[in-house]
Structure prediction request, 120 residues.
Amino acid sequence: MGSVQSNINCPDCGSDRAIEDYHYKSGEVYITCQKCGYYYHNVIKRDDAGKPIIVNGEYQWEEKKQHGAGIYEIHRKGGIGYGVGTLEVDEKKRKKQIQDLKEYEKKEEDITIKIKEYKR
Ligand SMILES: [Zn+2]
Prediction:
């Protein structure tokens, strides 16, 4: 299924580093912010097999919005660009996640992980 990605201002922190992913065939939208970790989606509910759930002839929609706690970047030596993931919002989970990321960084020689917590 095709989608259009565009840079937008983050509805949460206002940075210009949010990306909107619009699936034009289904009308589904995903927004992720690469600064604060804000996450939004408005998608069609699907069953475990990935098929849309239809009730009385209508698609069922699911909206989810989440404030972010920041992001992490995985840079690979000599690589172009980098991977981005969002940090856990729950503080305990986030501490564990950051610990895991640091251990992963130690194990892998050619990567650097930058952790950018976002505090509002
Ligand atoms: Zn943001």
Notes: DSSP finds one helix and ten strands in the chain. The beta strands are 4-8, 18-23, 28-33, 39-44, 54-55, 58-59, 61-66, 70-76, 83-86, 111-117. The chain has a mean pLDDT of 95.
